[in-house]
Design a protein that fits this description.
The protein is α/β, with parallel strands linked by helices. Helix content is 56%, strand content 13%. The two termini are 14 Å apart. Bound molecules: ligand Z5A.
Length: 209
C-alpha cells in the first residue's frame, strides 16, 4: 500500500491555524483523500496529558531541557500510536504543529541548542519528516492582537514579543530554500489565505499521483 502524505501546519500565535485546518480538512474530504487530523503536543491520551502539563501556567520555572524532553516524549507516543500506523495504512496525516515547532519555540524562542533538538529528532523520528510544512506567516504584533482576543493565556502565550519574534525568525530561517515548506502570507484576508493553501494542496496532490 502506498504510504500517505504527512502534512504539518505551523506558525506563531494568531496565524489562524485552527481556522485554516478546518479548511484543509474540507479540501481533503472534497478530494476524497483518506486522512486523519491530529495535533502536537497531543494526539493520544498520554500525549494530551503531557500537553496539559506543558501549557499550564505555573509558578515554578520550567527548565528548558525538561520542556524539550516532554515535547519529544509526547511526540514518541504520538508517532508510535497514531502517525506512523496511519501513514502506513495509506492515510494522509494532517498534524497541527510538529517538530518545526520545536525548532521554532524551543530552538528560537528558548534559544536552546539546535544540535540537541536534531539529536532528539533523529532518535524519536528516525528518518520520518513531514512531506510538506504549511507555514502560516504573520507579523508577530498582528498575530498577538488576534490571539489575545481569545481570553486566558497559556504558558507560551504569556511570553513577551521578543520571544515570538525569535520563534517567527526560526520558522522563516528553516523555510528558506527548502522546497517542502510552503510559506503562506496569513495576514491576508482569509479567502486569499485559503486560495494559497488550496494551491499548495493541489501541488502536493499532483506530486502524490
Ligand atoms: N509547542 C512547543 O513549544 N513546541 C513544540 O514542539 C510544539 C508546540 C509542537 C500550543 O500550540 C503551544 O505548544 C504553542 C507552541 C507549543 N504555543 N502557544 N501558544 P497550539 O497550536 O495549540 O496553540 P496556538 O498557537 O494558540 O494555535 P491555535 O489555537 O490554532 O491558534 P491560531 O493559530 O491563532 O488560530 P485561530 O484560533 O484559528 O485564529 C486566531 C484568530 O484570528 C481567530 O479569531 C480567527 O478568527 C482569526 N483569524 C484567522 N485567520 C484570519 C485572517 N486571515 N484574517 C483575520 N482574522 C483571522
Amino acid at each position: 500500500m502506498k504510504r500517505g502524505k504527512f502534512i504539518t501546519v505551523e506558525g506563531t500565535e494568531g496565524v489562524g491555524k485552527t481556522t485554516n485546518i478546518a479548511f484543509i480538512r474540507s479540501w481533503l474530504e472534497q478530494q476524497q483523500i483518506p486522512y486523519i487530523a491530529t495535533r502536537e503536543p497531543g494526539g493520544t491520551p498520554l500525549a494530551e496529558q503531557l500537553r496539559g502539563l506543558l501549557l499550564q501556567p505555573r509558578v515554578e520555572t520550567v527548565n528548558p531541557l525538561a520542556e524539550l524532553l516532554m515535547v519529544f516524549a509526547a511526540r514518541a507516543q504520538h508517532l508510535a500510536e497514531v502517525i506512523v500506523p496511519a501513514l502506513e495504512q495509506g492515510n494522509w496525516v494532517l498534524c497541527d504543529r510538529f517538530t518545526d515547532a520545536t525548532y521554532a519555540y524551543q530552538g528560537g524562542g528558548r534559544q536552546m541548542d539546535v544540535a540537541a533538538i536534531a539529536t532528539l529528532e533523529n532518535l524519536v523520528q528516525g528518518e520520518l519528516r513531514p512531506d510538506a510544512v504549511l507555514l502560516l506567516d504573520i507579523p508577530v504584533q498582528l498575530g498577538l492582537e488576534r490571539a489575545r482576543g481569545r481570553g486566558d493565556l497559556d504558558r507560551f502565550e504569556q511570553e513577551d514579543i521578543a520571544f515570538f519574534e525569535r520563534v517567527r525568525n526560526a520558522y522563516l530561517a528553516r523555510a528558506k530554500g527548502n522546497a517542502h515548506y510552503h510559506v503562506i502570507d496569513a495576514s491576508q484576508p482569509l479567502e486569499s489565505v485559503q486560495k494559497d493553501l488550496a494551491a499548495s494542496l493541489h501541488q502536493l496532490q499532483r506530486e502524490y499521483a
